[in-house]
Every structure is written in structure tokens, then in C-alpha cells.
């Protein structure tokens, strides 16, 4: 039987149906003309939740936040031309952090490139330096063999971005007009179409990884021999979305070996209900003392997670003679210090679990050594100094606010940290808590673009309250994200640290260059953020003191809309407070 169809419509629907059958649940769409077939296909599919974001750059980072929150692929759809370039910052961040995104860009037919056609650029493998896979879908063809090929590409996109290579993948979709479903392009035999999902072996492919017996591998045996023969060892847990199973096994490994865990503030190790007896959180302050660095000198280091936030630890690693091995899912090389021996591709949870099994089988467990005791005593003393200097400071500042947030935030709270000083201060001052806190960051490329959009993405699919700790420049840079608050009903509390621009530069040598520093680096903006927030129907409050902050944050976390708490700080005074803490740690322990 002959039927009338729009080939763009059936093409886009076949693709979206395959994504859904493979387990995709969320998409972030930006309005446009050329992407009409894709937009309609996503919007009409009841098995997928589609969010609409007018600004493509914001849409990309919003999708990034969604994917971080659910730890699963999210689709981004945009029109052709420069709209595709607006997605690039979020794609770079996803690539660096291995966040699974499926980028679907609409395009003009290839023959229009270089012909002066409107809104036409070369989109062929546009993001080639920062994606895990690219596929050009070609112009839609309404025939069985072509649709099977497209569906296979959809399935492969999910598999590539979530399991094989993990990270963003890009599919380019050329379309010719007409785009709307009620406009007819073809009259074909119904048998040429295929929509029965079972005929294409559509098993969901978001199931994860298979267990590998690492204990049978030579490198695993070499590490076992090393850690059982070397008494002085450290486990570094850098930034990572680590789950409780890995945290438990890593803690057990730490205790068996007698190796302290240097836990980055964004590693999730400092929070939750688990053994924290071996966790060191003040290592950045401790490593600023040359005497401490000389005394601890480990012989072996096991590193899980990404590159650490702490500049002090990174500097220490540059001159540390220890044999250091990086262990992560894809064997990524996280070593700016260029001193690591090797990076091994291994699921961190399975590595620790199997290592613990071998250690237990051989009845291996070290007693507490004098070397360990020295490190743990230093941790305890520096924590007391931190509490006395930072957490008892009276005026509003960028340091104490970390502890205030952690005290007030209820169990399960999501905390998104902006780059520049917020994430550094969190690493410096976030103390160990028996409370589940989920920490997020855009530390892959460490840009300030898209921070607020990412936080909205995290909050959009979470039943728990979300806090964004951000600076004034990062907030200004992503103002378009505030429109999201009118599109979705979600609880996002933004703590806006306003030091009138460029607080990060105060810690850099350029701060000694007087007028040039003020005119070209700090660049005071003197913006009235309350008017900007009110324009997006958000609730804005200016914090007066710590008691006022407690009240406003507690109230904001209960709201179902965007709340902005502006905390005006002095970047110079905050820097002096940090240095006072570091100097006191140094003098109290190690300097004569």
C-alpha cells in the first residue's frame, strides 16, 4: 500500500526511537528552523524528557549538568551555523571530564557549503579535537537499508559515549526543506518503512562494564609486590564522581596497607557514612611546609581520579621520588608533574576490591607506623588551627563560607563549585563530615563559562536541593542561564561571592603590578546583581552577617525556585586570612 510521508520526519523519528530504546531519557533542545525534524521527534516522544534552552551555549552546559547528575548520556540538539559553535565550550568540558553527551547538529546539504548559502558553515567533524566519535547521517532516505544504518549509528553513539570511550559524540544531520510533518516529500510503499524496534535487536546498552580479573595481570602483581614491600605510601583520590562502593574498598585498602588517603575536596571521600580514620584533608596547608614535605617522602603513590585541585600537592609531586601509578577507567594520564610511572586502565572499584581480596588471602595488614602517626597528628593539629582561624573569623569572607555551607546543607545536598577561588577554597577548607554531600565541578578545562547552566542541569533531575557556590565574574558570564529558572521548577540556591571582580588574580604574582593589575586583570564591574536577578523573577538577598546567612540559606534550600544570596567580600582580606592559616600551620609544626 502506498503512503504519503515527509522523509525528514520519519528519519528523525527513527533515530529518536532508537535512542530511547537504548536507554536515553533526557535531551536539551534549542529552537531553530533547520533542526525542526529532530525537535519535533524529541518533543513528541513521551519516553524522553526534553528541556528547551534558547541559548545554545547555556543548553550545552545544562545538558552537561544533567549528564553529571544522572551519570548517563544526555542529548543536545541545535540548528545549523554558528549555533553549533556555541556548544563547543560544553563539549570541551565534557571531553576533558569524560561526561557522556550526544550532540546532534542540524545542517544544510553538503552541496551548499562554500556557495554563500545562509547559515551554512563546514560542520563536518566540527569538534574533532574534543569528541570520542563522529558520524554524518547524510540526507534522509526513507528506505529500509538507510533507516537500519541510521538506527545502528544511534545505538553505536550511545555505546561509544557511555562505555567504549566515554565522553561526547557528534552526529551531523543534513536536512532539505520541507521540515514539517504535514508537508509531503514522498509517496512510497509502506513495506519500505520499518518501525518495529524488536526487528533491530534493540537491547538497552546503558548497563555498564563487565568485571575483569585484574589479579591475573602482570602489572597488578607488580603493584601488589610494591605496596606489600614499601611501608611509606600514600593514596591520592583526586576529583571524581566516586560511588560508595569504591570509597568503601579504597578505605579498606588504605587501612590494610597503612597508606593515608589524601582526599581532594571534590572526590566525595570527605563526606558520607564511611571510615574516615585514614583521610587527610589539610594536605595543601601541610605541604606548604618544606619540613613536612621532607619528612613524609613516600616510596609509592596510588592515584585515583583526575588531576588534584591542590597546587601544593601538584608541586610536591614534581620533586617526589615515589613510584606513582594512576589507576582509572580509561588509563587517562593525569600527571602535570610528569613524574608518574604508568597509568593503568582499570575500574577503580574492582581494582581495590581484588587487591583487598589478595591481601586478605595472604593475611596482610600493617600495624600503625610512626610515619603514619606523624601525618595523622599533623592533620588533627592543622584542623584545629583551621577551626580557630578560619571558622571563627567574624567578618564575611570567602574562606569561612565553606564550613557554613557544609553545616547548614541537609543530607544529600548537591554542591556545584565554580572555578577560580570557590573550588580552591572548598579544597582548602572543606572539613570531614558524616553527611552525604554530592560535589560537582567543571574542572576539565576549568573555565568559568556555563557554571550556572551546569548547576541548573544538576538540579533539574535531582530530588535533593542544589547549591551553587560561584564568583561574580562567573555569574556575570553565564547570565543567560537565569532564563532556565522560568522554564523549570527546581530548587537552586546560588551563593554569589561578590568581590567586584578577579579574586583569583590576587593570589598570582601579577597582583604586585599596581595600576596595570587593577586596570587589566581585576577590572571592577560594579554591577547591581539584584536588578539582573529580579529581571528573571528570581529572589535576591544581600547577606549582612553570618547569622543572616544561616537564615537565608536555610530558607533558600526549601524554596522551589531560584534564590540568589549575595555575599560581598574583600579579596585582599580573604587572601590574608588564607595566608594566616597557612603560616600558622607552618610555624606550629615544622619551622624553628
Structure description:
- The chain has 592 residues and is of the alpha/beta class.
- It has 3 domains: 2-179, Rossmann fold, CATH 3.40.50.970; 214-380, TPP-binding domain (Rossmann fold), CATH 3.40.50.1220; 390-589, Thiamin diphosphate (ThDP)-binding fold, Pyr/PP domains (Rossmann fold), CATH 3.40.50.970.
- 40% of the residues lie in helices and 16% in strands.
- The termini are far apart.
- The relative contact order is 0.11.
Short description:
The protein is an alpha/beta fold. The strands form four sheets. Strands 3-2-4-5-7-6 form a six-stranded parallel sheet, sandwiched between helices. It has a six-stranded parallel sheet with strand order 11-10-9-12-13-14. It has a six-stranded parallel sheet with strand order 16-15-17-18-20-19, with helices on both faces. The termini are far apart.
Task: Note the main sheet.
Answer: 6 strands, parallel
Helix percentage range: 40-55%
Rg, Å, rounded: 26 Å
Number of strands: 20
* CATH class category of the largest domain: Alpha Beta
What is the mean pLDDT? Answer: 92
Identify low-pLDDT runs.
Answer: 196-202
Major sheet: order of its strands? 3-2-4-5-7-6
Helical stretch tally: 22
**Termini separation (Å)?**
93 Å
Shape: globular
Identify the CATH homologous superfamily of the largest domain: Thiamin diphosphate (ThDP)-binding fold, Pyr/PP domains
Proportion of strand residues: 15-25%
Structure classification: alpha/beta
CATH topology of the largest domain: Rossmann fold
| Oligomerization state | single chain
Count of spatially separate domains: 3
The CATH level-2 architecture of the largest domain is identified as 3-Layer(aba) Sandwich
